[in-house]
Amino acid sequence: MSIRTEEQLSHKLATDLTWRKKELSEMKSLIEAKNVTDQRHKALLRSGVCILYSHWEGFVKLAANSYLEYIISKKLTYQELSSNFLALAMKEKLKEAKQTNKPSLYIPICDFFISELNQRCLLPKDVISTGSNLSSEILKEITYILGIDFSIYSTKSVLIDTKLLKTRNEIAHGEYSVFDRAEYLEVHKEILEMLDIFCTQIENAASQKKFRRDSP
Questions:
Q1: Which of 9, 87, 142, 148 has the fewest CB atoms inside 10 Å of its own CB, making it the most exposed?
Q2: CA angle, residues 90, 91, 92, in degrees to nearest 5
Q3: Contact 19/55 with Cβ under 8 angstroms?
Q4: Global pTM value
């Protein structure tokens, strides 16, 4: 079912976040268990980091594209879009022209900005990507595209890039990288908080109509 209302958007985000939190809670319980061997505990920590990262990346990607789907359902014109979404809509047009040495390809783009902004916008679906490596820089780009505040995450770059992403990549590539229990629990807590923050930001952006040029 397509996302056409704020309620449908909130339901989609809440449903997705609920199952992720349940799985993360199960993993946390296993990691906190005392009656396991040291080798099993290390394996659980390594698995836990990978699952924690997968839910962080997975929810950000799903929430961002769900918000985009909601905006598409509004059937706005280009001139009604906020500048960040107008840039997203124009990305493919500019990309096609840039890949050639033909100045003539820029003429339709100029004509578009001069006289066609009153047409219904054509935003691409599922275009927001994490690149399977959700670093703080990629997160910043996503927040810019969505028109939400990145400053909340600006102090989390070490946690995102080093403690989570770097460790997950090392484990995924077969390297021997292990958290201790306290470090994992700290990252687990921080990621859950950021998931809730990102969810709230998306919901607020929708309710405040931040995707519109004339939004307050």
A1: 87
A2: 95
A3: no
A4: 0.90
